[in-house]
Amino acid sequence: MTTPDLSPAESARWALRAGVPLDAGRHEAVAATANHIHGVLAALRNLDLGETVPAAAYHAVPATAATAHTGNETGTGTKEAGHAAV
User: Fold this and answer.
1) Do 38 and 6 contact (CB within 8 A), yes or no?
2) Has this prediction a pTM greater than 0.85?
Protein backbone atom coordinates (compact mmCIF):
# COMPACT_ATOMS: atom_id res chain seq x y z
CA MET A 1 0.00 0.00 0.00
CA THR A 2 1.47 3.32 -1.03
CA THR A 3 0.48 6.71 0.28
CA PRO A 4 1.17 10.09 -1.30
CA ASP A 5 4.09 12.08 0.06
CA LEU A 6 3.44 14.60 2.78
CA SER A 7 3.48 18.14 1.40
CA PRO A 8 5.17 21.01 3.25
CA ALA A 9 1.75 22.54 3.97
CA GLU A 10 0.49 19.25 5.38
CA SER A 11 3.59 18.88 7.56
CA ALA A 12 2.91 22.34 9.01
CA ARG A 13 -0.74 21.46 9.64
CA TRP A 14 0.13 18.16 11.37
CA ALA A 15 2.85 19.81 13.44
CA LEU A 16 0.44 22.52 14.57
CA ARG A 17 -2.15 19.88 15.41
CA ALA A 18 0.48 18.14 17.58
CA GLY A 19 1.21 21.42 19.37
CA VAL A 20 4.52 22.09 17.62
CA PRO A 21 4.14 25.17 15.42
CA LEU A 22 6.82 25.36 12.73
CA ASP A 23 8.48 28.38 11.20
CA ALA A 24 7.65 28.69 7.51
CA GLY A 25 11.26 27.90 6.58
CA ARG A 26 11.08 24.47 8.24
CA HIS A 27 7.97 23.10 6.47
CA GLU A 28 9.85 21.61 3.54
CA ALA A 29 12.60 20.02 5.65
CA VAL A 30 10.07 18.49 8.05
CA ALA A 31 8.02 17.11 5.14
CA ALA A 32 11.15 15.60 3.54
CA THR A 33 12.18 14.00 6.84
CA ALA A 34 8.71 12.59 7.46
CA ASN A 35 8.60 11.18 3.93
CA HIS A 36 12.00 9.55 4.40
CA ILE A 37 10.93 7.95 7.70
CA HIS A 38 7.72 6.75 6.06
CA GLY A 39 9.79 5.15 3.28
CA VAL A 40 12.06 3.37 5.75
CA LEU A 41 9.08 2.04 7.70
CA ALA A 42 7.45 0.85 4.47
CA ALA A 43 10.61 -1.09 3.60
CA LEU A 44 10.69 -2.66 7.07
CA ARG A 45 7.03 -3.67 6.77
CA ASN A 46 7.84 -5.47 3.52
CA LEU A 47 10.57 -7.64 5.06
CA ASP A 48 9.76 -11.33 5.13
CA LEU A 49 10.86 -12.39 8.58
CA GLY A 50 9.64 -15.93 8.12
CA GLU A 51 9.55 -17.72 11.43
CA THR A 52 11.75 -15.22 13.26
CA VAL A 53 10.50 -14.92 16.82
CA PRO A 54 9.99 -11.47 18.35
CA ALA A 55 12.89 -10.07 20.36
CA ALA A 56 10.75 -10.17 23.51
CA ALA A 57 10.77 -13.98 23.27
CA TYR A 58 14.59 -14.12 23.53
CA HIS A 59 15.96 -15.40 26.83
CA ALA A 60 19.65 -14.87 27.43
CA VAL A 61 21.54 -17.80 28.88
CA PRO A 62 24.02 -16.76 31.57
CA ALA A 63 27.66 -17.60 30.88
CA THR A 64 29.07 -20.56 32.75
CA ALA A 65 32.13 -20.22 34.93
CA ALA A 66 34.23 -21.82 32.19
CA THR A 67 33.24 -19.23 29.59
CA ALA A 68 32.70 -16.14 31.75
CA HIS A 69 36.37 -15.04 31.73
CA THR A 70 38.56 -16.04 28.82
CA GLY A 71 41.43 -13.63 29.34
CA ASN A 72 40.65 -12.22 25.91
CA GLU A 73 39.94 -8.61 26.78
CA THR A 74 41.15 -7.40 23.38
CA GLY A 75 38.36 -9.16 21.50
CA THR A 76 40.77 -10.51 18.86
CA GLY A 77 40.37 -14.19 19.62
CA THR A 78 43.90 -14.56 20.95
CA LYS A 79 45.59 -13.37 24.09
CA GLU A 80 48.07 -10.79 22.94
CA ALA A 81 51.43 -10.32 24.64
CA GLY A 82 51.80 -7.09 26.57
CA HIS A 83 48.08 -6.73 27.41
CA ALA A 84 47.30 -7.19 31.05
CA ALA A 85 44.04 -8.83 32.07
CA VAL A 86 41.52 -6.30 33.32
Assistant:
1) yes
2) no
